[in-house]
């Protein structure tokens, strides 16, 4: 279950008309903090990001289905449905929740290190191509808050 503060931040982003990926970013940020503070671990930065995105979908953020395997898309659809059901107040099985937490606690904390996240960001950016990166950088410069 995401923290109240994270839900509020994501809702604020939604009210301000920010993109769904920005809203979901709040959940990913929370997950990275959890790993850093030792609440649990992750095998890789990608896993920490995936957990954050899953939480976002379950919290009702309308993310596009991921590009990837059928099982990955199926899991994302399941998270989206769980997000819709959550409004009706159905709870997660305590046994399942405990098992997931136990498995994550046994994982390393290195996945959220600055080095690991930097490697992940560079790898992800390299996949996008130069034109896409240039457009993103130009938009960032345009929309940057005045310091």
Notes on the protein architecture:
The protein has 147 residues and is mainly α. The protein has one domain (4-112). It has 7 helices and no strands. Helix 1 (4-15) packs antiparallel against helix 2 (20-36) and helix 3 (45-58) crosses helix 4. The chain starts with a helix and ends with a helix. The model has no long low-confidence stretch (mean pLDDT 90).
Q: Count all strands and give the number.
A: 0
Unreliably modeled segments: none
Task: Report the major sheet.
Answer: none
Q: How much is the radius of gyration in Å?
A: 16 Å
Tell me the helix content: 55-70%
Structural class: mainly alpha
- Mean model confidence by pLDDT: 90
Query: What is the overall number of helices?
Result: 7
Name the shape in a single word: globular
Distance between the termini: 35 Å
Which sequence of SSEs, written as H and E, runs from N to C?
HHHHHHH
